[in-house]
Amino acid sequence: MSEGDAQMAKRPEPAFDQPWHAQVFALTVHLNENGAFSWGDWVSRFSATLRRHGVAKDLNGGEDYFAAWLETLEHFLAEVGTVAAEDAEDMRLKWEAAYLATPHGQPVRLAETTARKG
Fold first, then answer.
1. Cys-Cys with 72: which of 34, 49, 56, 85 at CB 3.0–4.6 Å?
2. How far is the C-alpha of 112 from the C-alpha of 96, rounded, in Å?
C-alpha cells in the first residue's frame, strides 16, 4: 500500500451527507449557544417531530433526519416569534425554485430581491 493509499484509508467518513445538513445543524447549535432555547427543549421538540413522522428506526443522519430537523427548527422559530411561519415558508419556496432552476453541479443561489420600501 502506498503512502497516499494509507492516508486515504485513514480519512473519516463525512459527518454530513449534504452541506445543508451541516448548515442547519450548525445554525441550531448557534441558536442554542446564544440562548434562543435550551438543548433539552430542542431535543423534546425534535423527538416529537420524529415521532409524528413515524421515524422509529435507527437514523444515519440522512435526508429524512435532517428534513425533520429543519421542520422542527422552522416551527420552533415561528412559535417563539423569531420568524413568522409565512416568511419561513416563503423562503423555503424560494430556495426550492432556485434549486429546481439550477443546473446540476452549479451553486444554488436565490434571485436578488429589491428592498421593501416602508
1. 49
2. 15
**Rounded Cα gap, residues 32 and 50, in angstroms:** 20
**Nearest CA among 115, 111, 89 for reference residue 100:** 111
Q: Provide the pLDDT for residue 64.
A: 82
Give the pLDDT confidence of 61-90 residue by residue, as tens digits. 678 888 899 999 988 988 888 888 888 888
**How far apart are the C-alpha atoms of 87 and 53, rounded to whole Å?**
23
Q: How far is CA 65 from CA 9, 28, 34, 95, 108, in A?
A: 28, 14, 24, 19, 22
Grid cell 443522519 is found at 61
Counted residue by residue, the chain has a size of 118
CA angle 82, 97, 25 (to 5 degrees): 45
